[in-house]
Amino acid sequence: MATAPELAAAPEIAIRPMTEHDVPAVVAIERASYQFPWSEGIFRDCLRVGYVCRVVTVGDEVIGYGVMSTGAGEAHILNLCVSSAYRCQGIGRRLLDYLLDRGAAMGMTEAFLEVRPSNTAAIRLYQSMGFEQVGLRRGYYQATVGREDAAVLKLSLRGRRSRES
Prior knowledge:
By secondary structure, the chain is an alpha+beta fold. The protein is 27% helix and 35% strand. The chain contains four helices and seven strands. Strands 1-2-3-4-5-7-6 form a seven-stranded mixed beta sheet, with helices on both faces. β3 (61-71) and β4 (74-82) form a beta hairpin. The termini are far apart.
């Protein structure tokens, strides 16, 4: 069984724009991570319409990705995922921070996201970065039995440094 590299020995990561060439690797991580994953078509559509789509790489290997839409002063984190072998090393935090900086650079003043209440690790990350729950979407997510609600979280981007790349 593969284990995550030790934090002290973790390889250098890079965050760069997602390309069509990256979609198969992104979909593989998505399918390994979620019971109800996004399809390849959804990722391709996100690229096509110009959403902020980024991948995290170690060398040539895609190990994570993030997708964010922007408009009307709001950034919406649509998907954020790190390969299981690289979790708990701060990579998700770095990617989310990057996306939030991009949103601020684009003039967005608030960021929103939805998260399953059962995804406690993600909720801890979001809360540690200042997100606060502002709502609940009933039956938002597909579930094995029925539907699962989504917690709606919000973060102000006012005064946040902006990243231009």
